């Protein structure tokens, strides 16, 4: 990587990568064996079509037992007994790295490539042994790593070649394929046939000459009668051009479009529908992806929706690959029906789907058909435990100026018909895959009492604004969405911050004048070098920037100057949107809401001029407010799948003047989840769960070796009677209650005031669970903050924050 570049968060390490060169030995196809069609006794449904239509991705695991290899081939029942039904029609053996080097993006030498072949064939021999023991036939695919375009490579017996020369680079590809096929021909497998090559890199970048490389590679593969498989990430270069480049099977990962809670998103059916729309009329398929092997209710629900929407949209008839974790789901299910209920449900969903079972959609369509530009509403019964309603819709318009904007209001009622409250959200942001598909979510007020709700959608259309009415897709139950309390939004000192591209002032806990409104921008469109000092950036985060214009102002549009560089993991911001209000909002994410309808606007890409001689682009993303929009505060929100780097944010009034220049603002960031860490998740502190025993997934934790804080903002300022933090006191784990904590509170005018000490109790409400109570003033407040001073080592752990109105 060049010295001015920051590391890419997942895919890119900007350096020369990979190589190996020898002449190609003759490549001969393996004879394709006929499958043994032995239907499972308990469910005699014909097996899937034979032909790389349902492919399992198995990552290497040195500890995998013979029994676990068998479980990757056939199903097991709830007691762990093996069936006889072969689950997949094909298998790819993978490892993400070799000798500590990434297969797709690191420099591999001849020794590394030999070790890679050794590992693949060791795994293939074990797979063949499992197939033989079960009487199954296996179609096998092995990995083809990326070949660097900028390195010298020494080949034993041949000397050096330079892969900057496309002809030499092709020789490296031919040599590696030849070695792979030659070893397969002499492997001695009895029940396994090598029939495919899987290209492991997930993007094909023109600036690196990759289209030429893969075209030659695929010609070589096809000449041997083999299938060529590629699984790019959803927005990768050339993802829709794979067939033209010679791949037989192109299967796209939708993970960055279908974001689960782990990726700062929601289970959003509209985005899966958008994927189906994007690949309609092509042979491109979708990869199934499961998180945590279905080990939580949420991850099991995400995986369930992949399957249900695949069947509804016809994606199940296209080639599919199944990613079931690098720590493999099929390794772990053996009598799991009692040991891990959510994992077993996910396993039953997947194996049932593979055997032809219908997977029910968890979403629910309600009677709601908006027409014209008038407000529409519909009343429906809430499901038990329903705490959020999500509206998925598709814009009728196709042009970039024809986007629907409006607010979604949800009024809840108890069993006696009494109104419990109304929550609002504004339509903001688009699917990254198809800009016409969008979703909006709104919490159910007092969800624990609510039995019925009325949902109303109000267009923000006035005058001649060229916005169109949406076509409804679904309005549905979202069991794992916005916390049911709905009134508190959290930020804390251990949240994800812009450490590498920090702001000029600390604005995550208050207001300040920073880089985003100082009027300075990139001098040449690049984001590196001295320009980096002008930027504010975040990696894999959700951010809301609340700009104080100083007074109620008529507004026309907003502009954000930002960057993209596919070679460095810098991406255009996702879901970039703005909302004008006359109260400062405390929300953290693109689904910004307000207690009264505001004026939303969405951003659209500009011309995206390229920075000469690089793969970098510079863009002004612009969005228009509806006619008549006004407000003192403008909340600009975005999410970042890689690095989002912003130069400047401008808010234009009716005359086109930038009224944000020099303005103060506050930043609220919602962190990505961190396995094994104790970050504020944005939802766990208000999910109603107060565990007696310590469980890391249910706590937000603070190390005591430094001063820290936890802040709760009210979505609507109110006079709160009480506030409480539920704690933990597990001395064996180094967890204890704080000794000298204090709290502050913010009044309705936004001024922070000292609240005094926090009262810690060792047992609360008849439970052995400790808590900390705050003595809130008898007046309207907009936020409160707990200050945790530096103390002797260990942790303070908080599971829940509760607050009630007077």
Give your account of this protein's structure.
This protein is an alpha+beta fold and 806 residues long. Helices cover 14% and strands 32% of the residues. The longest helix has 25 residues, at 110-134.
Relevant terms:
806 residues, alpha+beta, nine-stranded antiparallel β-sheet, eight-stranded parallel barrel, globular
Main sheet properties: 9 strands, antiparallel
* Sequence stretches where pLDDT stays below 50 over 5 or more residues: 1-50, 256-269, 461-467, 479-486, 586-596, 670-676
Percent of sequence in beta strands = 25-35%
Helical residue percent? 10-25%
Tell how many strands the DSSP assignment holds. 38
Q: Which whole number gives the mean pLDDT?
A: 76
**Number of separate helices:** 9
Oligomer: single chain
Radius of gyration: 28 Å
Structural class: alpha+beta
Shape: globular
The N- and C-terminal alpha carbons lie at a distance of 58 Å
Question: Which secondary structure elements does this structure contain, and how are they paired or packed?
Answer:
Layout (H helix, E strand, L loop, with lengths): L53 E6 L6 H6 L2 E3 L5 E5 L3 E5 L2 E2 L2 E2 L7 H25 L3 E7 L7 E4 L3 E4 L3 H20 L6 E8 L10 H14 L3 E4 L18 E4 L16 H10 L6 E5 L7 H17 L6 E4 L5 H4 L3 H4 L1 H14 L21 E6 L6 E8 L10 E8 L5 E8 L10 E7 L8 E8 L10 E8 L10 E5 L43 E4 L2 E24 L8 E8 L17 E4 L13 E9 L5 E10 L3 E11 L10 E7 L29 E4 L4 E20 L14 E6 L4 E6 L1 E3 L9 E4 L5 E9 L6 E11 L1
Parallel strand pairs: 1-4, 1-14, 4-7, 7-10, 10-11, 11-12, 12-13, 13-14
Antiparallel strand pairs: 2-3, 5-6, 8-9, 15-20, 16-19, 16-21, 17-18, 17-20, 22-32, 23-29, 24-27, 24-28, 24-29, 24-30, 25-26, 25-28, 31-38, 32-36, 32-37, 32-38, 33-34, 33-37, 35-36
Helix pairs in contact: 3-4, 5-6, 6-9
């Amino acid at each position: 990587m060049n010295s001015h570049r920051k590391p890419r968060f997942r895919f890119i390490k900007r350096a020369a990568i990979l190589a190996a060169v020898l002449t190609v030995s003759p490549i001969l196809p393996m004879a394709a064996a006929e499958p043994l069609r032995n239907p499972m006794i308990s469910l005699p449904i014909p097996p899937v079509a034979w032909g790389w239509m349902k492919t399992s991705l198995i990552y290497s695991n040195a500890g995998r037992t013979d029994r676990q290899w068998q479980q990757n081939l056939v199903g097991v029942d709830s007691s762990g007994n093996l069936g006889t039904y072969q689950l997949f029609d094909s298998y790819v053996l993978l490892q993400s790295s070799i000798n500590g080097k990434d297969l797709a993006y690191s420099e591999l030498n001849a020794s590394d490539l030999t070790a890679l072949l050794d590992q693949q064939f060791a795994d293939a021999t074990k797979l063949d042994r499992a197939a033989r023991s079960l009487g199954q036939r296996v179609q096998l695919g092995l990995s083809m790593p990326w070949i660097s375009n900028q390195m010298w490579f020494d080949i034993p017996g041949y000397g050096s070649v330079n892969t900057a020369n496309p002809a030499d680079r092709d020789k490296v590809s031919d040599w590696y394929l030849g070695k792979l096929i030659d070893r397969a021909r002499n492997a001695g497998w009895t029940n396994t046939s090598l029939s495919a090559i899987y290209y492991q890199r997930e993007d094909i970048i023109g600036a690196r000459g990759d289209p030429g490389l893969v075209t030659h590679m695929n010609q070589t593969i096809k000449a041997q009668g083999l299938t060529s498989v590629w699984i790019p990430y959803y927005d990768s270069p050339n993802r829709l051009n794979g067939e033209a480049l010679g791949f037989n099977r192109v299967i796209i990962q939708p993970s960055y479009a279908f974001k689960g809670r782990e990726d700062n998103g929601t289970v959003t059916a509209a985005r899966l529908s958008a994927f189906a729309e994007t690949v309609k009329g092509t042979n491109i398929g979708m990869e199934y992806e499961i998180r945590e092997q279905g080990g939580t209710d949420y991850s099991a629900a995400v995986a369930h929706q992949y399957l249900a929407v695949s069947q509804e949209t016809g994606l199940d008839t296209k080639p599919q690959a199944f990613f079931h974790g690098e720590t493999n789901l099929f390794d772990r299910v053996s009598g799991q029906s009692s040991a891990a209920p959510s994992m077993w449900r996910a396993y039953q969903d997947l194996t049932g789907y593979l055997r032809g079972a219908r997977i029910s959609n968890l979403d629910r369509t309600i009677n709601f058909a908006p027409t014209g530009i008038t407000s529409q509403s519909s009343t429906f019964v809430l499901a038990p435990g329903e705490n959020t309603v999500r509206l998925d819709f598709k814009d009728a318009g196709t042009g970039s100026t024809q986007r629907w904007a409006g607010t979604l209001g949800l009024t809840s009622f108890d069993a006696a018909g009494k109104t419990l409250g109304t929550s609002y959200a504004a339509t903001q942001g688009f699917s990254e895959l198809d800009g016409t598909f969008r979703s909006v979510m709104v919490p159910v007020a007092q969800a624990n009492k609510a039995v019925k709700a009325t949902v109303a959608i109000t267009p923000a259309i006035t005058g001649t604004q060229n916005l169109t009415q949406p076509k409804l897709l679904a309005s549905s139950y979202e069991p794992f969405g916005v916390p049911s309390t709905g009134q508190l939004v959290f930020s804390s000192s251990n949240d994800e911050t812009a450490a590498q591209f920090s702001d000029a002032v600390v604005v995550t806990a208050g207001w300040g004048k920073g880089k985003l409104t100082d009027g300075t921008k990139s001098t040449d469109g690049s984001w590196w070098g001295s320009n980096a000092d002008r930027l504010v950036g975040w990696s894999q985060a959700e951010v809301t920037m609340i700009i104080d214009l100083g007074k109620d102002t008529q507004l026309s549009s907003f502009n954000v100057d930002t960057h993209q560089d596919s070679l460095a993991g810098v991406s255009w911001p996702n879901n970039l949107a703005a909302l004008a209000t006359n109260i400062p909002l405390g929300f953290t994410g693109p689904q910004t809401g307000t207690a009264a309808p505001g004026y939303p606007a969405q951003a659209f890409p500009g011309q995206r001029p390229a920075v000469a001689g690089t793969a970098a682009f510079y863009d002004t993303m612009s969005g228009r407010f509806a006619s008549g929009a006004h407000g003192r505060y403008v909340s600009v929100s975005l999410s970042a799948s890689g690095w989002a780097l912003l130069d400047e944010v401008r808010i234009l009034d009716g005359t086109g003047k930038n009224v944000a220049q020099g303005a103060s603002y506050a930043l609220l960031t919602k962190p990505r989840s961190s396995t094994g860490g104790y970050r504020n998740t944005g939802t766990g502190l208000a999910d109603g769960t107060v565990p007696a025993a310590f469980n890391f997934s249910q706590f937000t934790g603070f190390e005591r070796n430094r001063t820290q804080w936890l802040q709760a903002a009210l979505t609507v300022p109110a006079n709160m009677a009480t506030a409480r933090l539920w704690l933990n006191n597990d001395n064996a784990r180094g967890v204890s209650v704080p000794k000298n904590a204090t709290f502050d509170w913010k009044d309705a005018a936004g001024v922070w005031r000292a609240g005094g000490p926090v009262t810690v109790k060792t047992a609360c409400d008849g439970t052995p669970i400790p808590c900390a109570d705050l003595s809130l003033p008898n007046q309207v407040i907009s936020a409160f903050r707990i200050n945790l001073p530096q103390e002797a080592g260990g942790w303070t752990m908080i599971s829940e924050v509760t607050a009630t109105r007077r």
